[in-house]
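Example record used in the benchmark description.
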Amino acid sequence: MTHPNSSGAHSYEVPPTEAEERAANASLGDILGDVSRDMSTLMRQELELAKAELKESGTKAGKGAGLLGGAGVAGHFVLVFLSLALTFALGALIGLGWSAVIVAVIWAIVAAVLAAMGKKALKEVRGMPQTAETVKEIPPTLKPGEETP
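Model output (structure tokens):
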């Protein structure tokens, strides 16, 4: 639609878009409903993205863990054969029976030291203290069905 303005020139009015008309006529409840729906959609999309990323990371981590497991088995065989070599080398000097006992005692000492170090490390595990603390800070209004003390 055209009409002359004060300078005599014609101006053109752009009709409002459907979204603009809906926003102008929407109630506060409608707007909050739209925001709520949009937040819900955003959260679902973020969750799907997180699932996809976690699946990809999990696949790569599984492959890496499998390779490390294979390396552990190979390392175990190295230790077995080195232990046998030490047993036979000592056996040439003091007899196979005593050399086997000496190698077994060496491995018992190694096992005891590793067990003590592992036990100490496990005592230092504290779980999830930061997560537990932040969960306590969630306002009671976001926990439906719970009464505040």
